[in-house]
Amino acid sequence: MKSLLFFAILFISYSGYNQQIDYESPNRYRFKYRSIVYKGSRMDITAQLRKIKNGPKFSGIPEEIQTGLNELFIDAKSQAFPKVYRKKAILFLDALYNYEEFVIMYNGALYEVVEKLKRDMKRIDFKLERQYIKSKTAVDRVKKNDSTNTKEITFLNEERQKSLIRLASHRWMKKKFDAYKGINIVKNPDELITEFKKAEASYIFSLFNKKSVDEIKKYLENEIIDFYYKKAIVEIDPEKLDLQYINKYN
Predict the structure, then answer these.
(1) CA geometry: angle at 51 spanning 27 and 89, to 5°?
(2) Half-sphere exposure for 241 (CA within 13 Å, toward CB)
(3) Are the beta carbons of 111 and 185 closer than 8 angstroms?
(4) What is the DSSP string of 91-157?
(5) Buried (b) or exposed (e) across 148-175, using 16+ Cβ within 10 A?
(6) pLDDT single digits (tens) 37-69
(7) CA 121 centroid distance within chain
């Protein structure tokens, strides 16, 4: 009877020990993140993390940011101990979803900047053409009154050319911006917006959570004007510019 009791206690103790080993086994991983439960072997959870990372939501991540995310992912998947793996996996997920929040902010800020510039360009269009007409009139007046004043004529001609280039570049930019309609201009952008977004993404990401959205928008506005102006310079033919308000000056 005592022998049976001894073996029963031994069996219960052994079963409890097995359950403890099973619970603490390095092959079992379990944690919760944003209402999603990740559980299974390290390989299973790593596959889940990889699927999220490579999903369409996170496609198109700039190389510089992708490099950082990949380093966090590699660091997480290489951890053999569940507690360390959980900590590293959460760090990776934090960074990944922080990028998602960044994209929402970036798209929203850039869209607002584009809409503002559309309004601004419409407002200053007449002003730039008027400045060009005034500079052209100044040259013509000096030529008529004193054609030997080459120094003044040269200076005014340079000013006229600068005004013409500003106006022609503005018209090129305005045409591009006028064609942009709705939030899709940043979600499904054309080549110009795509190039600009890609060029600025890493720096804007470095400002995310450090600068206010208004500060970021101000930066984007300055940069996108410069970006489009440089594109316009190589595309325009100032001598083929059509004046739109010429009758208003007569």
Answers:
(1) 50
(2) 24
(3) yes
(4) HHHHHHHHHHHHHHHHHHHHHHHHHHHHHHHHHHHHHHHHHHHHHHHHHHHHHHH-TT-HHHHHHHH
(5) eeeeebeebbebbeebbbbbbbbbbbbe
(6) 998 989 999 999 999 999 888 877 888 889 999
(7) 23
